[in-house]
Specification:
alpha/beta, 7-stranded mixed β-sheet, two-stranded antiparallel sheet
């Protein structure tokens, strides 16, 4: 792909520079002043509507580029999602591409302006895009202090409940991307606590999920469970393919780079209200996810009806 990457480099650079310029002018610039104005006059509901619309406008060119230029193609199976439905979304975490895939999945029901992510506050300083995530209210930044984070989350969740605008609250319960070293640590952790030893996912951090369910149960009718199946690199590194770099820089030449996805919709009434039962619900869910990925490793497919969209 070296020669092809060089040949398409001017187009790639033009797109990257254009998207950065769009971010600086539209979001870090104009939307910042609009946000201050609307907060001053307490136009919170209309501000959330505007942020939802701008997020769609901002992300659609990037997703389209990665699909058309990079060849990203999703083979999705499982349950149909419901338009205008708020949810808690959990997903296994292996790559930066995971977030791109979730954005793409959300377009099934035109919810790609409704996504919300949790992130540590230092990421707010990430050039251009950290501040853009804050202004768009797509990233809810929290501190590293557990006690302070609980307070901040409660405030953020109250805002989501008050606005009454549909949202997808996304959480990677593993807390970090899976690597061989982190997987080994997670397996040792499981053995010490008599938990299921997982091969394809890390042990979920159940406390965060329980907090989300406790605070948002009344406004989220379902949990969306996403399992992403990647092809592993053949170089022995085990890196998932395609990488974000290859999608961004390497023209696909009209060929698809297929990623398999299984999506499940779990009604909120199936999620226990008791804290200990809710924790066991998450552990069992990730055990199921591990078994699904074990089958995927053998067959290269997920079972279920293909979603057409």
């Amino acid at each position: 792909m070296g020669i092809l990457r060089i040949a398409t480099l001017p187009f790639t650079l033009l797109f990257i520079v254009s998207h950065i310029a769009l971010s600086i002018v539209l979001i870090d610039g104009i939307l910042t002043f609009v946000t201050l104005f609307m907060r001053l006059f307490q136009l919170h509901f209309h501000l959330r509507q505007l942020q939802t619309f701008i997020l769609k406008v901002w992300m659609s060119p990037l997703i389209g580029y990665l699909e058309l230029f990079g060849g990203l193609t999703l083979d999705i199976r499982g349950d149909q999602f419901i338009p205008n439905e708020s949810c808690l979304l959990i997903c296994n975490h292996r790559s930066w591409v995971d977030t791109i895939i979730i954005y793409s999945i959300s377009r099934q029901v035109s919810s790609h302006g409704a996504l919300k992510f949790l992130a540590k506050k230092p990421l707010l300083l990430f050039p251009i895009y950290g501040f853009a995530g804050y202004i768009l209210h797509v990233v809810l930044f929290i501190t590293r202090s557990a006690n302070q984070a609980v307070i901040e989350l409660k405030h953020a969740f109250e805002s989501l409940k008050t606005d009454k605008i549909p949202f997808w609250m996304i959480s990677y319960l593993e807390g970090t991307r899976r690597t061989p070293e982190k997987l080994q640590q997670a397996q040792e952790f499981a053995r010490e606590r008599d938990l299921p030893v997982l091969r394809h996912v890390l042990q979920p951090r159940v406390k965060g999920f329980v907090n989300m369910v406790t605070e948002l149960r009344s406004v989220t009718p379902a949990v969306y469970d996403i399992t992403i199946g990647y092809e592993d690199s053949k170089d022995g590194s085990g890196e998932p393919l395609p990488s974000f770099t290859s999608l961004l820089l390497d023209y696909c030449g009209g060929k698809s780079r297929v990623v398999k996805v299984l999506q499940r919709r779990i009604p909120m009434e199936n999620v226990p209200e008791n804290e200990n039962d809710a924790k066991m619900f998450v552990y069992n869910l990730y055990k199921e996810k591990d078994e699904l990925l074990d089958d995927f490793e053998k067959t290269g497919e997920f079972k279920g009806n293909r979603i057409k969209w």
